């Protein structure tokens, strides 16, 4: 007798409901986990907020949109980092909604929700999705570009042109990798006669006009800042290291896809019990152009992005892992065929749930258990609120003015920049990176200089002492981490640069 579980019946009858249940539950998980177990923002989120606070048209970190949105979300949450976590998960929801709609138009709604279930196990969309920045914001925009791009070139829907033009413009305002990413759909469209017909209309001209209007301010900044140059190509001596970097990055992508591979292996019918009648999910016949679309955008981005990252010596694949592997689950559903047999339903459910929970468990383990096993610092264990409050209040008590700027150790300074007064971040070792504060501004208006103290004397490092020759170190301030375990106290050396009196 053929038995289908409730989940399978829901996928057949109510695929959109299953989509919203899965995606919203995972988004809620990744709002709660960092809120409960991170004492300081993960990754470069604090730096993103420090840059976003300035509302610059462009910076050395790239286009401005992600930084502006991060600051807006932070302020909307009353100065609480949960606003940024919610923003990151809204990006996750939009990414998967666009993926579902794209898959639905290609392989039908039932296969689309299974593609979403597979893709949700990719680790690139788990813990790293909390670290909001250009790479995270690029994911929903790229997914929307693919969805509406398919509507334009595959389904010839003229109404999709307007949305597509806005999404392309916003993607260009999000990541420096956008031009390279957008070359791929353009080449795909030009290479196919059916797609070329969609480009030969006035809609294309109007779309280009909308894109130009959106990116004009940033383009002017690029011209003025002379930021069009690519990073230098590697020398002959660096080729070996760059090749190793490429292998590491590509291996990281493969590891992030391990969950999809596991689920596929568990569902192989050859290993199913004898006399087992598996429930089926069917799809309509696939358009050959749709098959080409899925394979091209599933295989080319990770390969090209990895090669480009290796050539230019980047620490991540160009565009980010979430962009590179976005269509991996849909590619699997395209390969499977017109009928999907679900073997060992209970085992598949358990494995899927374990794959979703595993990254969250790893985060909790790193926050709660690792401090007791190792003396290696957990970056998210630093008490960001306490650090920011102490230095902000100390400066205000001494001078009677809110803290205007903070310099010194970039990691600590970016955390202090989250103080209620939102002081400016001044990267004194590379002042050109923070043009909103010059050295003269810092000396005139005052601020706090911080560094990691090696002992209770609190002597500043030589490089900071050279850049700030007149500072008088205060007694270091010790902070306890969220969970100290075997880790020593965090000692922060500091000095106040008092504002100059107007003459």
Question: How is this structure best described in words?
Answer:
This protein is mainly alpha-helical. It folds into two domains: 6-222 and 251-273 and 280-366, no CATH class; 382-497, no CATH class. The chain contains 22 helices and seven strands. The chain has helices spanning 6-13, 15-37, 45-52, 65-76, 82-107, 109-119, 134-153, 160-172, 178-190, 193-199, 202-225, 239-256, 258-266, 288-312, 321-324, 328-336, 345-368, 370-373, 384-399, 410-416, 439-445, 462-467; strands at 280-282, 339-341, 405-408, 424-425, 447-452, 477-479, 490-497. The chain has a five-stranded mixed beta sheet. It has a two-stranded antiparallel sheet with strand order 1-2. The longest helix is centred in the first third of the chain and has 26 residues, at 82-107. The chain is globular and about 75 Å long. The model has no long low-confidence stretch (mean pLDDT 90). The chain crosses the membrane at residues 16-39, 72-99, 111-130, 168-191, 198-223, 243-272, 293-314, 320-340, 352-373. Keywords: Glycosyltransferase, Membrane, Transferase, Transmembrane, Transmembrane helix. Residues 63-221 form the Glycosyltransferase RgtA/B/C/D-like domain. This is Dolichyl-phosphate-mannose-protein mannosyltransferase. Pfam families: PMT_2.
What is the percentage of strand-forming residues?
5-15%
By helix and strand content, what is the structural category? Answer: mainly alpha
Distance N terminus to C terminus?
A: 92 Å
Anisotropy-based shape = globular
Largest sheet: 5 strands, mixed
Measured as a percent range, the helix fraction is 55-70%
Pfam families: PMT_2
Transmembrane segments: 16-39, 72-99, 111-130, 168-191, 198-223, 243-272, 293-314, 320-340, 352-373
Keywords: Glycosyltransferase, Membrane, Transferase, Transmembrane, Transmembrane helix
Domain Glycosyltransferase RgtA/B/C/D-like: 63-221
